[in-house]
C-alpha cells in the first residue's frame, strides 16, 4: 500500500504532486522548530501552504510539499536527528478519528495493525507493513520509503520520525515503560548513536537489510487501557467511509494532473476540464475544495514537477525548460523557481544534479 508511487504511474506526472496526505508530521515539525527558535512559517508559502491553511482539519498536502518543507527544515536547523524529535513530540489526538480507533483497539498489536491498514488516513510518509515472526512470535513493524531514490537526509528523517512516533504513542497508550526488543535501520550508523538508545530504550542496529521495529509478544499482546469493541467497530465504519472518499479524491486529482501534464506547454482551462468531466465548473471547484486544493494549485504542482524533471537534463537550456513547462519566458521560470525553492534555476539544477550523483 503506497502513499506516493513513483513517476512511472503516468506519463509526465507522478502521484507525489497529489494533495492526499494529512500534514501531521509538518504540524509537529513546525512545533519542534519553534522550540528551537526557528520559524518555518515563511517556508510554507514556498511550498504552496500558509499557517491559516495548516490549521484546517480538511487540509491535505502532497508528498512533494511535505518533502520540500522537511528538507528546508533540516538545512535550517542543521539537526540530522530532527526526525527523532518530531516523532517523539506526537500525540494520538493528532491522528483524529484514526487515533480514537487505535485507543479503542483490543491490544497494542491490534492497534498497530489498524494503523497499518488505514495508513493513508494517518499522514504517514512511509509505507508501513506488519506481521508476526514465525520464528519467535515477535511482532515486526516495517517501514519502507515510497521512493528509494530520495536523498539520504530526507530518508533518514522519514524513517526515524516513523519509528520514534510509534514508540512514543505506544508509551502514551500502554505504559511509559514500553520498549521494543530491537530497532533496525538500513542506513549507516550516524555520529550521534547514543540518542537512539536513549529514545528507544533497546538495542539499535544500523546497516540492517530493512527498517524494522521488533516488539516482544508480551508487549504486543498488552491490552489497550481504552479498549472498547463497540466504539472500535463504529469508528472503523467512519474510517472506511473516509478511505472510500479519499480514493475518489485521489482519483480526481490524478486524472486532472495527467490531463495537465499531457497538455503542457498548453494548460487546459478550468472550463475545459469541467467539460471533460461532464460536470459544471461550480461542481468541479467544490470537489477540488473537498480535496483541500484548487485547480490553480494543481497546475502549479504539475508545472513544478515538470521543471524539476527537465532541470535534470543538462542539455536543455532554461529557455527550453520554460517553453516545455508552459512559462511565457525565462523570467517567468526564474520567478516560479524562486517562489518554490528560494533560489535560481541554475543553482537548483546544480543541487539536484549533485544530489543525483551522490545517491546510493
Strand-residue fraction? 5-15%
Beta strand count: 7
Query: Termini, distance in Å?
Result: 24 Å
- Percentage of helical residues? 40-55%
Main β-sheet, spatial strand arrangement = 3-4-7-5-6
CATH class group of the largest domain:
Alpha Beta
Architecture of the largest domain, CATH level 2?
Alpha-Beta Complex
Describe the fold and architecture.
- With 360 residues, this protein is of the alpha+beta class.
- It has two domains: 7-230, H-NOX domain; 231-358, Orthogonal Bundle (Arc Repressor Mutant, subunit A), CATH 1.10.10.60.
- Helix content is 55%, strand content 7%.
- The chain has 17 helices and seven strands.
- A five-stranded mixed β-sheet has the order 3-4-7-5-6. A two-stranded antiparallel sheet has the order 1-2.
- Strand 3 and strand 4 (139-144) form a beta hairpin.
- Helix 1 (24-35) packs parallel to helix 4 and helix 6 runs antiparallel to helix 7 (108-117).
- The protein is globular and about 65 Å long.
- The model is unreliable at 1-15 (pLDDT under 50).
